[in-house]
């Protein structure tokens, strides 16, 4: 049932469209960095693009795609989770779910499973799109090892980000609609940027995926086991708290 809802939703097209745009933008950055003189002759801002990456090769492009997943995924994966849980209250269908002869924890588990699958599908789509764009613009430095390393890092970044959006499901459920979930998402993304700038990102879970993806540069401190442990803890706590709320809350509408 949750898969059917997702398939018929316009949000699925919006999320894939958004990842298409950011993937194409990453390809544009690589195209500019290949030849700054050519970029200037075409009216592109080659000097500003040079601030985003130093080289134009497959390794840099895969790193850029991972950073896109870390930053853009926090928003798009968050929107997926907020929509999956918040729609039941905004569209007054929560009572219909509760009337089914199905355990509430099963319903919550199905929603999280669809959200995780949806998000991983988006990450995989971005990687495949990156392969296509990189081939079209003729990026140098291709090898199977580089591609597998880039894919592994991108998927790990996606999994970390998926774990961190689970508390937004609790916000959308307890707030009985989209807005509380979106507000929690905006607050988390904002704090992740601020705390990372202050140098304490490895201690703040929502900053960990971006640091792992290398968005702060090679000289930055990696998150470490403590940071990854915090991400897992947030993910497990978000799922458990959401399931407990659905089981014990007073569902009056």
Can you lay out the helices and strands and say which pair or pack?
Elements: H1 2-8, H2 10-34, H3 36-41, H4 46-49, H5 58-90, H6 94-98, H7 104-136, H8 144-164, H9 166-174, H10 178-197, H11 208-213, H12 224-248
Pick out its properties.
253 residues; mainly alpha; 77% helix
In short:
Helices cover 77% and strands 0% of the residues. With 253 residues, the chain is an all-alpha fold.
Q: What's the N-to-C terminus distance?
A: 21 Å
Instruction: Report the major sheet.
Output: none
Helix proportion of residues, in percent? over 70%
Mean pLDDT level: 87
The secondary-structure class comes to mainly alpha
Radius of gyration: 20 Å
Low-confidence stretches: 46-52
Beta strand %: under 5%
Order of helices and strands: HHHHHHHHHHHH
What's the number of helices? Answer: 12
Number of strands: 0
């Amino acid at each position: 049932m949750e898969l059917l809802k997702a398939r018929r939703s316009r949000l699925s097209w919006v999320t894939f469209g958004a990842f298409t745009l950011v993937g194409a933008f990453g390809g544009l950055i690589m195209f500019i960095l290949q030849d700054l003189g050519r970029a200037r002759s075409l009216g592109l801002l080659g000097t500003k693009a040079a601030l985003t990456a130093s080289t134009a090769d497959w390794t840099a492009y895969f790193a850029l795609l991972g950073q896109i997943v870390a930053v853009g995924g926090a928003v798009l994966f968050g929107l997926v989770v907020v929509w999956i849980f918040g729609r039941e209250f905004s569209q007054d269908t929560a009572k219909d779910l509760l009337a089914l002869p199905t355990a509430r924890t099963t319903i919550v588990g199905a929603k999280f499973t669809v959200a995780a699958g949806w998000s991983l599908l988006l990450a995989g789509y971005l990687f495949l799109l990156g392969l296509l764009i990189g081939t079209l613009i003729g990026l140098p430095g291709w090898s199977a090892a580089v591609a597998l390393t880039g894919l592994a890092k991108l998927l790990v970044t996606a999994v970390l980000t998926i774990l961190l959006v689970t508390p937004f499901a609790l916000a959308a459920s307890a707030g009985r609609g989209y807005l509380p979930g979106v507000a929690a998402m905006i607050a988390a993304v904002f704090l992740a940027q601020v705390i990372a700038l202050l140098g304490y990102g490895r201690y703040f879970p929502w900053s960990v995926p971006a640091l792992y993806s290398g968005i702060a540069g090679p000289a930055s401190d990696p998150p470490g086991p403590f940071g990854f442990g915090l991400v897992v803890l947030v993910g497990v706590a978000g799922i458990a708290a959401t399931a407990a709320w659905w089981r014990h809350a007073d569902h009056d509408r």
